[in-house]
Amino acid sequence: MHHKHLQTRLDSGIATLGLDLPREAPQRLLDYLQLLQRWNGAYNLTAVRDPEQMVTRHLLDSLSVVPYVRGTRLADLGSGAGLPGIVLAIAMPDLGVTLVDTNGKKARFQREVVRALKLDNVRVVHGRVEDIDGDFDCITARAFASLPDMLAWGGHLLAGDGRWLAMKGRRPDDELNALPPDFRLLEEHPLVVPGLDAERHLLVLARTGAA
User: Residue 194 sits in a domain of what CATH number?
Assistant: First the structure.
């Protein structure tokens, strides 16, 4: 893995996104990527095999939502390899991040990352979204079920004035038309991920009664 090359790609992506990250964040992100690569063979955590693609499609894609995160408690549902949750936790050390996944191997990998990178702002919950309690300012979910399903399973976790950040490819009109009545689309933002030649959308949802 050409470390220097990946570092350049990551640094230039962070600059393009206009993010001001903690000084140690880029190195920790690359350490995370190395763990992801090392475990991926045995654990099949991601279909992306090429480290350069991982920088773009995992790290930069996750970092593109940093400007939209609010509050101090975030839950990442169906976190998988820890995306975007672990990336956001590294980028925003003051944010308390809870990773939720039903897959034992993925939860084990997440715990290993937390241990190896000493991410004391992250906790890993191995279980089903609908069985979990909590009150989160922000919820992220990347490529995990349709919006109506996700809200049905995890909607109870969103604080009254919280924000649900749904990362999608193209705008899922049919999903938006099927939102449960207690949620509404508040904002939408096209995400421009440096080096990614694909349509990305961020949909920001809120409770219907919330300001």
Answer: 3.40.50.150
